[in-house]
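User: Okay, second chain of the day. Same drill as before: sequence in, structure tokens out.
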Amino acid sequence: MNKRFLFLIIVIAGGYSFLFFRLYNIQLSKGDYYLARAQSQYLASGLIAAKRGTIYFSDKNGNKLAVAVEKNFPMIYAVPKVIDDAKETYNRLIQIFPDVSPNLEKKLSVKSNSYVLLERKADQSVVDKIVQENIKGVFSDLEPERFYPFGSLASHVLGFVGPNSDDNGESGKYGLEKFYEDILDGVPGKTESGKLIQPRNGGDLTLTIDPNIQKQSETLLNGLVKNYKAKGGAFIVEEPSTGKILAMGGEPNFDPNNYSESDVGDFLNPAVQKIYEPGSVIKIMTMSAGIDLGKITPDTTYIDKGMLVINGLKIENHDFKTRGPHGLITMTNVIENSLNTGAVFAEGKIGNEAFRNYLVKFGFQDKTGIDLPGEVNGSLKPLFASYLPQVNFATASFGQGIAITPLELINAFALIANGGQMMRPYVNAALGPKPLGIVISSSTAKLVTQMMISAVDKAQVAKISGYSIAGKTGTAYVPDPKKKNYDTSKVVNTFVGFGPTNNPRFVILIKLDEPEGAPAAGLTVVPAFHELARFILNYYNVTPDRL
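Assistant: Same drill. Structure tokens below.
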């Protein structure tokens, strides 16, 4: 019995001795190693990084869909403090990371570096190699990174994140990720004397973008670009009574999860960061100005000769060579047939200064104030130059010679749909509507809307049975800077329309850049508008207003 008791004492004493040795080895002998590893793990794996806020889309019922989230990805890093031989470590790492920076060896030699990042979002095969090689001071962990579960959906609106300036986290680079960086990013934590001070996570963002309308719009535009081998395009869907942007995007787009695979130019949002000459859609603004000033009415007539010459330059109607003059016609006929000479006639009745002032009032010289980064403003420069030939105003009356953004254009149509009241467009649902002022009278808005309805009814392509739809096409030639003229083999197609006109629920803009063969807008963007408008009417279950 005494021998057994003695044996038990020896076993217990041996166990305690082993635990004491392990504790001594960890705390004293290898204390610096584990402290360095723990601190670097805090930094590298994002334990002290603030969790970035989630971005949501919201549908017609207020249901939210997360479209920009945090997700754990494998990452590989080195801890210089516990690396014995920086040169040997470097030589082993370049076998795994052949594209690694030549400065890596120097970074591995600096013992004061908390950690050196080797690769974010590493493939599992690379992680397996690191584990297999068992390189001292090189580790793999999971790190929270930005992830976009729907890939390229609304990529121009969302933007993307990239490594921040300290290379210890991410920050917004484009789109809403950049514009709302202060809200989404939060405040990182920190380590002091081995203790972790908790981070404060970023705030969430709920958008006005409806995922169903966004998806349908992108599908339609993508089909247009492919079918007509176009250079690109853009679309916007806006709620005219509030300024809510329900959908926005362009082609070509990109996958924010793999943005490095796309051209830098693709990151620019074509709806707000690029200007273009819109063509005949501007005739609606010309007619609005004339009617609002009392200079013309929808029934005002003039004799169309099919062409005219101003300052030695010939201006023709699009159908002059095939149809010839239209003769005695009204301003409504001008919109129905999209006659350039009729727009020039209306501008002449308005007067140059008054016409220019209305284009400014419609917002074609100023930014709209939308909460997206990098918005540019349109250019009315030919109407403000020191030398002002009449032809500048003549061509501006039908949308050539001046340049605007698609957002400026749709917002101008939205104010007509909204009875003359301009609204500030926005994508952050928390902002809410903001009126920007009355541009035209409600009576003018109604008369111009009727002119657009007549144009849609006559052309039939955009017409939707049971609903009153207002709209206008634009087929504009593309300027050729080298020749200081227009390339008639290249066009930009635009259609802007809204409905139902008794209580407009949407304004849609669809733009197609340089479709092959230079077709008219009636063959490209107008059928796409018809399909998207039908989708939205059904989606909202809108009651027909034309029984």
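DSSP finds 18 helices and 20 strands in the chain.

User: Thanks, on to the next one.
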